[in-house]
Design goal:
Blueprint lengths: L3 E2 L3 E2 L4 E4 L2 E7 L4 E6 L14 E10 L2 E7 L24 E5 L2 E6 L2 E6 L6 E4 L5 E5 L4 E5 L5 E8 L6 E5 L11 E4 L14 E7 L3 E5 L5 E5 L6 E6 L3 E8 L3 H12 L12 E4 L8 H13 L6 E4 L22 H9 L4 E6 L2 E2 L4 H9 L21 E2 L5 H17 L3 E4 L17 H24 L21 E2 L7 H15 L6 E2 L1 E2 L8 H12 L4 E3 L13 H16 L1 H14 L4 E2 L1 H4 L13 E3 L3 E3 L8 E13 L5 E11 L7 E3 L4 E4 L15 E4 L16 E7 L5 E10 L2 E7 L5 E5 L5 E4 L2 E5 L4
Length: 769
């Protein structure tokens, strides 16, 4: 929200008060509180008829410093508040220090400095004393708008050349500078400024992050209202935000996700190919079986089959009952599908249509959200007379899960938790929550409710969702997909921008509808999207009005689907290792180039390519004719598909067929390569190959620096370490030693093609030119 009219004036009807000078300071061992006047105090009379802003500075966790600015402290907080599992002030190790008028608060590598003699301001410093950002004049304030609403305002300085990223899954430009962004859930598709997943956290290219600890609407002005500042405001009497230390972007995400919750590790089977019925298409068991048979006859391995909305009867979503006219034997059908090795996913949502048998049941027991006068909240958008399940009511959560339990007992493995964004604010919640704060937070309790049921029934490590909405902390309940995108190259690119922004908001896993959701893609769009989708965290074929079976788009589409599905399966020892890293550290699987190359100025701007795990660079092709432009960082990289080497830093212009795209392996990488290309959850140590990409030279003959020793871990199906391999390069000799396994493995030196096989230690001579 903007409050000013240019630099000098306020907008009509806006009155603002800014922290100006410190009138009192109270310092404890691990925190301090400043009382800031909103005008200069020259005499005692200036202290009358004027407010103070109370500014508390503390550390909620190691390497994170919080600032809470409050105008009137007597306002009742009815919740909800973000659950912060990593909140641990005692373990933060925060300490204060005073030197004259200067007061400092330090936690880990981060220091907050306040000078009591100068004008109001706060400075955040890294471990080397470098200024990261700061609160300057007009950086701590409150304002009243013409409608009488009260807003708390914070501002942090932007340095020259500093970029801002994140704030959820946003399809607008990847670098957020110059944008006005409201953290407010909306069902807006992928082609607008609205977003399904709004996260009040941003990451700076200077090596820090900012989390605004408020679950309601947070309005960000990123170098927009004031071009040298990031401003954030809330309609409240208090504003709390946290500065998260780096110094690297990975360390920022590690600290942020430790605070808000690390992603669960999805089961390995979920990384295979998902096929759905699509949305508005007509289907029954015969149709489903024909799809499964069609994939099998074309030798395309399928891992998950998903039933979208019309598994239930029209006008009755959600009653969680199979349409008996279309599916007279659902248990038998599911058993037949599972006999073929498939997992089953079902579409659900939190809306209860009036025609559903659950409407009367939910109304009778108080499980549906009500208006202030006691009426059940209803409207006709999406479903006629639909109501909303009140997940703040524990009994309503149990009731909802009891309906899903029937499906689990029938053999369903996971759920697509659709919707959760269109949450009204003119309602009363069971637990008394503030409707404005609950609007965004509803997604969290909705997805948590279903995820916890899956964990309870299927076991730890076997739960997975396909969720659309999320708020801060939602990364704990993967996987999330990008929502309703058009079947076009433009939408394909905007989907990737959204995924990269979400990954810089703490989410480890992300997917999208291969081929686009709205409309029917032409074969070129579908085939290009296939390669992108299968080189993503999770891969799903899904559409709106038409099926997404590959043969509907020609035989070449079948070949492309097969090729990249088999490739993903061979990569699973590597990919699941990256998934386990996301689970342990919060560093996402699909990584913007900034995460791996924060010191490279070019990498800070790239939004049409990414790193898949630490060692694979992927550049999707967004053109029918196969032309692609992408950037290769420093070092000699190797094409995974062709073996060609490319020495960077360099921009590449290439043309690729539909069965190809740039996938480059990082210099010095050791890529664990599975033997089984038929399924994602095989025994990866059985027939394992270690593909070693060794040192190479630039055209000028200057050696590229790569590690002389590389450790690579192969996980088991729980994400635990199954075996570790130590690769040592000495001249042209490569030695690889296994730990944790006595099974045979193969080593391939990719530079020369030299190979070796054995157990324990395998030595390959002539490995490097």
């Amino acid at each position: 929200m903007k409050f000013t009219d240019g630099f000098w004036l306020m907008r009509e009807g806006v009155r603002a008060c800014y922290a100006t000078e410190i009138r009192d300071l109270r310092v404890k061992a691990d925190r301090f509180t400043a009382y800031a006047a909103v005008k200069r105090v020259a005499e005692r009379g200036d202290t009358l008829n004027t407010p103070l802003i109370t500014v508390e500075c503390f550390s909620p966790a190691e390497g994170i410093i919080g600032v809470r600015a409050t105008h009137h402290a007597g306002t009742v907080n009815r919740g909800p508040d973000f659950a912060l599992p990593g909140l641990d002030p005692e373990a933060a190790g925060a300490r204060t220090r005073r030197d004259g008028a200067v007061t400092e608060l330090t936690s880990g590598p981060l220091t907050l400095r306040m000078d009591g003699d100068g004008p109001w301001g706060l400075t955040f410093l890294d471990a080397d004393g470098r200024r990261l950002t700061g609160v300057d004049a007009k950086g701590t304030a409150f304002a009243t708008a013409p409608d009488g609403s009260h807003h708390m305002i914070g501002r942090l300085a932007l340095d020259i050349g500093e970029n801002v990223y994140g704030l959820g899954e946003r399809f607008t430009p990847y670098v957020k500078n110059g944008q006005s962004i409201d953290i407010w859930q909306a069902d807006g598709g992928t082609s607008s400024e609205l977003a399904y997943k709004n996260i009040p956290f941003y990451l700076s290219s200077r090596g820090y992050g900012v989390f605004v600890n408020h679950p309601g609407k947070v309005s960000f002005e990123i170098g927009s209202e004031s071009v040298g500042q990031v401003q954030f405001s809330v309609e409240d009497q208090s504003l709390e935000y946290y500065i998260v230390a780096g110094p690297t972007p990975k360390e920022v995400l590690a600290r942020y996700t430790a605070l808000t919750g690390r992603p669960a590790l999805p089961p390995a089977w979920s990384f295979g190919l998902w096929l759905t019925t699509s949305f508005c298409t007509s289907y029954d068991e015969e149709t489903v079986t024909s799809f499964v048979d069609g994939m099998a006859s074309r030798e395309i391995p399928l891992s998950v089959f998903h039933f979208d909305c019309f598994w239930m009867r029209e006008y009755q979503w959600s009653d969680f009952l199979w349409d008996p006219d279309v599916f007279p034997d659902p248990e038998g059908m599911l058993a037949r599908l599972k006999e073929r090795g498939l997992r089953i996913s079902m579409w659900i949502n939190p809306y209860i249509a009036q025609k559903s048998s659950l409407f009367a049941e939910g109304a009778e027991h108080g499980y549906l959200v009500r208006r202030p006068g006691g009426d059940i909240w209803q409207w006709d958008l999406w479903q006629p007379g639909m109501a909303l399940v009140d997940f703040t009511n524990p009994a309503a959560r149990d009731w909802y899960n009891s309906k899903l339990q029937v499906l689990l007992d029938q053999g369903v493995d996971c759920f697509k938790t659709d919707f959760g964004e269109r949450v009204p604010t003119d309602v009363v919640w069971h637990d008394g929550s503030d409707p404005e704060r609950m609007h965004n937070y509803y997604a969290q309790i909705y997805n948590r409710t279903v995820f916890e049921l899956l964990e309870k029934e299927r076991g730890h490590g076997e739960a997975v969702l396909f969720a659309r909405s999320a708020t801060a902390g939602g990364q704990q309940f993967p996987v999330h997909w990008g929502g309703d995108c058009f079947a076009s190259f433009t939408a394909m690119a905007e989907s990737l921008r959204g995924g990269l922004s979400l990954s810089l908001s703490g989410f480890g896993f992300w997917s999208h509808d291969i081929g686009g959701f709205e409309g029917t893609p032409d074969p070129a769009v579908f085939k290009r999207w296939l390669a992108f989708g299968l080189m993503s965290s999770h891969s799903r074929l899904h559409g709106n009005v038409s099926y997404r079976v590959p043969w509907a788009f020609g035989e070449e589409a079948v070949d492309v689907t097969r090729k990249f599905t088999l490739l993903k399966h061979r990569l699973m020892p590597y990919l699941y290792g990256a998934a386990a890293t996301a689970h342990r550290t919060g560093v996402p699987m699909m990584r913007p180039m900034l995460l791996e190359f924060p010191g490279d100025p070019t990498a800070r701007m790239l939004d049409r390519q990414y790193m898949l795990g630490p060692d694979l660079l992927v550049a999707p092709v967004f053109t029918e004719d196969g032309q692609v432009e992408y950037y290769v960082p420093e070092g000699t990289w190797t094409s995974l598909l062709t073996g060609e080497t490319i020495t960077g830093p360099v921009w590449r212009h290439e043309t690729h067929g539909f069965d190809s795209l740039p996938i480059l392996v990082r210099p010095g990488a050791v890529l664990p390569w599975g033997a089984d290309d038929q399924r994602p959850d095989s025994d990866w140590l059985d027939g394992l190959t270690l593909r070693v990409f060794g040192p190479a030279s630039t055209p000028a003959g200057t050696p590229v620096t790569v590690p002389d020793e590389t450790l690579v871990t192969v996980p088991d199906l729980t994400g635990a370490t199954a075996a570790t391999f130590r690769a040592v390069r000495d001249g042209d000799v490569l030695s690889v030693t296994a730990r944790g396994t006595d099974r045979p493995f193969r080593v391939v030196a990719e530079e020369t093609g030299a190979t070796g096989e054995g157990t324990g230690t395998v030595t390959v001579r002539g490995a490097f030119a």
